[in-house]
Every structure is written in C-alpha cells, then in structure tokens.
Amino acid sequence: MEKAIIVAIADNYAIGRANALLWHLSDDLKYFKKVTSGYPVLMGYMTYKSIGRPLPGRHNIVSTWYPFDAPEELDVVFSLEEGFSHARKYFNDNGIRESERKVFVMGGGETYRQALPTADTLYITHVHTEVEDADTFFPRIDPLIWKEVSRSETLQDAASGLTYEFTVYKRR
Ligand SMILES: NC(=O)c1ccc[n+]([C@@H]2O[C@H](COP(=O)([O-])OP(=O)(O)OC[C@H]3O[C@@H](n4cnc5c(N)ncnc54)[C@H](OP(=O)(O)O)[C@@H]3O)[C@@H](O)[C@H]2O)c1
After folding, report:
1. Rounded distance from Cα 45 to ligand 1 centre (Å)
2. H or E element in which residue 1 lies
3. Which homologous superfamily does the CATH classification assign to the domain defined by 2-171?
4. Which of 75, 103, 112, 128 could link 87 by a cystine bridge, Cβ 3.0 to 4.6 Å?
C-alpha cells in the first residue's frame, strides 16, 4: 500500500491559520479532487472540522482522540496506524489490486508530522508566498530523503495573483 501525502505549502512552509486554509486556489482544489478521487483519504479531526463534511467519491478516514457524532459514512479511528489498517481493510474488502492501493494523508499539520516519516510519496503544491501569521506549518522536506520526480510549469491564480507549481516527490 502506497502512503501519499497531499498538501499545499507556502515558501515558509505555512499551511494553515485559525483552522482554515491560507488561500483559495480553485485550480489547486480541482487538482486535489482529481488526484485523490477514488482513493481513501485520511485526515485529523481539525481538518475534518474545517471542511465540515465527508469528501464525496472517497473513503473518508478521520483520526481523533475522542469519539464524536460522526456521519455514518465516516470511518473514525483513534490513531494514524489504525487509519492505515482501515485503509488496508478497505482495499481488501473492495478487491483493489496491490498496484492501485494508495491512501492519501490530507492534513493537517499534526497529522502530516506523524505521517511524514513513513510516507512514500508527497504531492505538494508549492505556493509562492510567505505567510508570517500562519499557525500551522508543514515539516521541512529533507532533500537527502525526498527526490523531486515531477514539477509542473509555474501557474498563476487569476483571482489572487499567486503563483504555484504542482510537484511530486518520492522517498529516495
Ligand atoms: N495547506 C494544506 O494543504 C492543508 C491541508 C489540510 C489542512 N490544512 C490546515 O491545517 C490546519 C489543521 O491542522 P492541525 O494540525 O490543527 O490539525 P489536524 O492534523 O487536522 O487534526 C489534529 C487532530 O487530529 C487528531 N489526531 C491527530 N493525531 C492523532 C493520533 N495519533 N491519534 C488520534 N487522533 C489524532 C486529534 O483530534 P482530537 O482533537 O479530536 O482528538 C487532533 O487534535 C488547518 O488550518 C487546516 O486548514 C492545510
């Protein structure tokens, strides 16, 4: 099973503030949907809360220390490891071939920090801005551990003027 992380990161590694995203990039949201659709997604409770509903077309796994009144279709787990074992069960139950077994860790900061040491692949949107008043950051991406395998051309969001690239890194 491939463990992937998907995240949009500012140049200073900022990813969130006040339990919300730092920008609205409609093409990044479309990219996120295209890349993750059909795969299980694993997120921390705060990220689930900030979205407010399960993402359609994906098996949604939420990790929390405390049980909460979750919609029936939500798969609630009590550790990241339990989340990965639920993803394995999902693949088994649905007869998914080994080569197609990929789970996406989709945030937030605390969940990324726990997932990065065992992740295989990083789908990172590098957003070219520095957000000084962010309160949530992605850990440093160590080039001795991570090899960049693809990078899109530099794109620009028409509404905000922000420039960004879609990249993929693999563990060396
Ligand atoms: N830029 C991006 O691509 C991106 C993507 C996603 C999120 N974000 C941003 O990230 C921020 C949220 O990140 P965050 O660090 O505050 O929260 P988070 O990682 O989304 O969620 C943290 C919560 O997850 C649960 N949790 C974490 N580790 C656990 C474990 N090992 N076992 C059981 N439960 C565990 C706990 O829930 P309980 O408190 O319920 O126990 C914890 O409080 C927001 O600003 C959001 O917008 C950014």
Report:
1. 5
2. none
3. Dihydrofolate Reductase, subunit A (3.40.430.10)
4. 103
